[in-house]
Design goal:
single chain, about 425 residues, alpha/beta, Rossmann fold, seven-stranded mixed beta sheet, globular
Length: about 425
Amino acid sequence: MNPPFNLRRETLKFAALALCARPFAALAQTPAAPIRLALIESMSGPFANTGEAVFRNLLWAVERVNARGGVRLPGVPGGARPLQLDRYDSKGQNEEALSALRAALDDGARVVLQGNSSATAAALIDAIDKHNERDPSRHAIFLNYAAVDPALTNERCSFWHFRFDAHADMRMAALMDVMKDDAALKRVYLIGQDYSFGQAVLREARRQLGAQRPDVEIVGDELHPMGKVKDFAPYATKIIASGAQAVITGNWGNDLTLLVKAAREAGFGGSFYTFYGNALGAPAAIADAGIGRVVAVADWLPNVQTAQSEAFYRAFRARFPKPSDDYVHMRLQLMVEALAQAVERAGSADALPVARALEQADVSMYGQRGRMRASDHQFQQQLVVGVMDRQGRPGVQFDVEGSGYGFRVVKTIAPERAELPTSCKMKRP
């Protein structure tokens, strides 16, 4: 006997509901889609070590956010979305970086990370500005952790760009705080990489020396091709012949390592005032010749004498115990924390509300605090200056990359002293 029509209808209705419920049940179990971060850096070529070092720092930061459940957002299954770090190789070329940007946007990334070239950063800022104007449904933001050409937060500032490193003028001012007290210093040699950042460093060095140490003679002032010099011996010969007592350079990566190594081998006995002399092979390259002579400026150094700083450094080394991986940046950790904070404040992972929230970023970890200045998107934080010394000496608990040499902090510049005015005229959407 067939059941009554009403009963058949109810049975079918419940069956249909059951079938419909299955996708929803499955959906409820589906993990929340990650927030994709696109790292665009040199992962091959002469500066591959810098790209890999950045990747390790960012990976650690992302792991930390995800370990606490991800970024909290309303209306998301489980209440949070994880961060996903994807890497794109720029091969040290602007065109490759722009191609990587297009690929990253097509892959769904709306947060772009880059820093190891101011020229590349400028190209990415321009491309992202144009992309965001052309395709508002796919807005992207650019987080810059190391491209420190001052123009990027001055005349070339962009609403979509946020810089988390002190720019070159800020770093030079910190170095000058040490140099101005060295009464014996009378002759300096300026040398840098021939692109926007290297040019900015030497320009600011000339200006600040003229203002604070007019008694110091500049006995050399030159730029060299970036990433193409294999032997710096001719440059070292010129430095020694000039009678320079110190070298001021913004060189980074192999261009710094090879420079200081050549100077040491040539017998240069003067000082190096550097932006990046505290890592990536430079301490090992210069060895004993650098004790008391190699000076570096940074947002943080491992030998900052606080318990929180020590805990931070030990945590990084526990995650990356190989001596060759010993290159940690506090600012990259603060940057990722600032992003997570902004997404949560915005209640959205969309670039526009996140950018607006990032303008108000104020983050702290392990005793280090940083805040974003809304007028130009330049992160404000303390700076420290360190002098190279042998591990185990007072103030040098930790060495660099297993070299036996570390950096003793000799000057701490508070955020309000490190801050410089901006000429940015921000255009906001």
